[in-house]
């Protein structure tokens, strides 16, 4: 997926595949738009991976936004569909992403529960995911006069554990200063350094894990299709029964109206034609045209 030219020890990548992964309401879409330099990602939450491409700093970028999990929910508490999306995301930028960007908000405390949630969801991609992961601190404007190093130290051991797992690779994005393209260029250079540290290789998930997840997705889609067919049949059966009931009721009503003893109970039977026009108007019916024989005391309209 990449064309490489050596500049010292760091290869230049003309093409990059990037995964954006994080809990819900972290700002993945916003980060993706900053990286691509344009409004490519919809800010609405999506249950499926979203793939967008663009040219940035003479590089062709493929950015995949992966659906997020609830911030402090363990991986066991997440729905099966979310786990499938996380695993299958790597297949959207073949042969695999060059880097996984794990987004962390600096304006929120990073707790032990969040650390366990991050670990569980990332390791769906295997233990090897950490060597390709970069922690990207977002909402950097909230740091004010605090350096990112001071912030990391103040957060404690859970955040430090996460950075150790990622080889101490981290970067800061300021969402308010979108005109500063330096922060994106530096991030792309860090991705190139990460690839160099991985011997020029992109991240590649075990084919058995990927195939297993594809089979589970296919089985789930088949079950969903069968459920939809059953629901449609139930709706059709109910509609058919209702129509039969309406026809039966109408037939019964017509039969009773045709009897001589019940004509006076019918709204269409008029004993006294003196108020014929008034009754027709109240029922929204046109005034009937009557011959001389139809103006008797008992008349059926």
Describe it for me?
- The protein folds into 2 domains: 4-204, P-loop containing nucleotide triphosphate hydrolases (Rossmann fold, 3-Layer(aba) Sandwich), CATH 3.40.50.300; 206-241.
- Helix 3 (112-122) links the parallel strand 6 (99-105) and strand 7 (133-138).
- The chain has helices spanning 28-36, 80-88, 112-122, 148-155, 157-165, 182-197, 207-258, 276-282, and strands at 4-7, 10-13, 15-21, 50-56, 59-65, 99-105, 133-138, 170-172, 269-270, 299-300.
- Helix 2 packs across helix 7 (207-258).
- It is of the alpha/beta class.
- The chain is 40% helix and 16% strand.
- The model is unreliable at 1-8, 262-271 and 290-301 (pLDDT under 50).
What are the salient characteristics of this protein?
301 residues, disordered C terminus, two-stranded antiparallel ribbon, disordered N terminus, 10 strands, 8 helices, six-stranded mixed β-sheet, Rossmann fold, elongated, alpha/beta, 40% helix
Quick summary:
40% of the residues lie in helices and 16% in strands. It contains 8 helices and 10 strands.
């Amino acid at each position: 997926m990449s064309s490489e030219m050596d500049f010292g020890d760091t290869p230049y990548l003309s093409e990059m595949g990037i995964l954006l992964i994080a809990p819900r309401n972290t700002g993945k879409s916003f980060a993706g738009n900053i990286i691509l330099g344009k409004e490519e990602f919809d800010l609405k939450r999506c249950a499926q991976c979203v793939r967008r491409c663009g040219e940035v700093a003479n590089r062709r970028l493929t950015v995949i936004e992966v659906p997020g999990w609830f911030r402090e929910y363990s991986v066991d508490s997440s729905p099966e569909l979310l786990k499938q999306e996380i695993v299958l995301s790597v297949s959207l930028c073949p042969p695999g992403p060059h880097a996984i960007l794990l987004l962390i908000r600096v304006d929120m405390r990073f707790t032990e529960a969040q650390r366990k949630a991050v670990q569980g969801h990332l390791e769906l991609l295997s233990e090897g995911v950490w060597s390709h992961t970069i922690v990207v601190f977002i909402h950097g404007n909230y740091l004010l006069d605090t350096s990112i190093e001071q912030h990391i130290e103040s957060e404690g051991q859970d955040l430090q554990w996460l950075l150790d797992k990622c080889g101490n690779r981290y970067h800061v994005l300021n969402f308010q200063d979108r005109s500063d393209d330096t922060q994106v260029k530096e991030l792309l250079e860090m991705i190139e350094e990460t690839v160099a540290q991985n011997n020029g290789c992109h991240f590649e998930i075990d084919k058995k894990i990927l195939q297993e997840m594809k089979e589970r997705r296919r089985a789930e889609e088949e079950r969903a299709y069968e459920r939809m067919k059953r629901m449609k049949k139930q709706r059709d059966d109910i509609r058919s029964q209702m129509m039969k009931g309406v026809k039966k009721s109408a037939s019964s009503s017509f039969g009773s109206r045709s009897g001589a003893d019940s004509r006076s109970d019918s709204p269409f039977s008029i004993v006294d034609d003196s108020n014929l026009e008034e009754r027709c108007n109240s029922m929204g019916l046109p005034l009937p045209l009557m011959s001389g024989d139809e103006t008797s005391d008992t008349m059926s309209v």
